[in-house]
Amino acid sequence: MAVSLILGAFEPEIFMALDIKFGVSTWLWTSPFGTTLAEPLFAKISSMGYDAVEIAVEDPALIESAKIRELLNRYSLEVIVCGAFGPSRDLTADDRSLRENGLHYIEECLDICVGLGARFFAGPMYAAVGKARMVSPGQRTKEWELAVSNLQKVCRMAEARGLEIALEPLNRFESDLVNTAADAARLIADIDHPAAKMILDGFHMNIEEPSIQNAISAAGKHLIHVQVAENYRGTPGTGQTNWRAWYQGLEAIGYTGTVSIESFTPDNQELAAAVCVWKPLARSQDQFAREGLAFLKQWASGIIPEMNTD
C-alpha cells in the first residue's frame, strides 16, 4: 500500500523498494563495441555505480571473451549480452543464406555469452530490425513459422550451453512481426522450449502497449530482462513515461532482474537506419548515464515521481 510523503509542492507516492540491479548498454557510448574499448568504458560504468554492463555485439570478431571477462571481474560488473540484427541476419528471410547467416551469428553470440559468464542472450532475433512492411496473411504466416522453427534451433543451441534467450518485441516502425508483450508471449508458446524467455524495452512499449502494467503482466514469468529509456529515447525521468505503472508491473510479477538503460550514440553503425538517432539526446552521453541512473535508483527505492506532462 502506498503512503504519502510531502516533498516540496506535491506528494509523491512512496512504495517498498524493488529488488533489482541497474545496467547500461555500451550502445550509449560506442558502436561497434570491441575489446579495445572495454577497459575505459567499464571503469566509467563501474565508477558511476552501475551493477552491470549490457554489451551489444555488432561484430563477434571484435570480442575477445577472456580479456573482457577479466575486465568485468576487475570492475565488479555483471554482464548482459544483446544482439544487433541488421538486414543480413534475418531468421524469417525468403533468402536461405540470410537465415543461415542469422543462425551463425546467434551461435557466435551464444559462445560469447558462455565466455563472458552471461546467463542469456537477448534481442529481436526473430527477424531483421527495420523489417516493417504490409504483407499478405500467407506471407505473414510463413514468416511466423520460419521464426518459430529457427528459434527452436536457437533454443536448442542455448540449452546445450546452459543459457536462455530473451526475445524482444519492437515497435511497428522496426518490426511487423512481434510488437507487443502479448505477441512475444504467443511466439514463446509456439516455440515451446524452456529456454525461450522475454525482454521488454520501454521505448517500444511506449509506442505499442495500451498499458505498461498489463504488458508486464502478459510477460509474467517469461520476463528475464528490462531495458528503459524515455519515450523519446532520452534520459529516464525527463519524458512522458509512466514510471508508476512500471513500478507496479514489476512489483506484481516479483521481478528481481536487471533494469538497463538502452539508448544510442548517433554513431551507431549496424542499426542506424532503424533506431533513427541522428543527434545526441543529452548534453553528453556521460550525463545521460549518470542522471539516468540517479533517477532509476530513486524510482526503484519506491519514490514514484509524477509524470512529466510539460
UniProtKB/TrEMBL annotation:
Residues 42-297 form the Xylose isomerase-like TIM barrel domain. SUPFAM superfamilies: Xylose isomerase-like. InterPro entries: IolE/XylAMocC-like (IPR050312), Xyl_isomerase-like_sf (IPR036237), Xyl_isomerase-like_TIM-brl (IPR013022). Pfam families: AP_endonuc_2 (PF01261). It comes from the Bacteria. This is D-psicose/D-tagatose/L-ribulose 3-epimerase. It comes from Anseongella ginsenosidimutans.
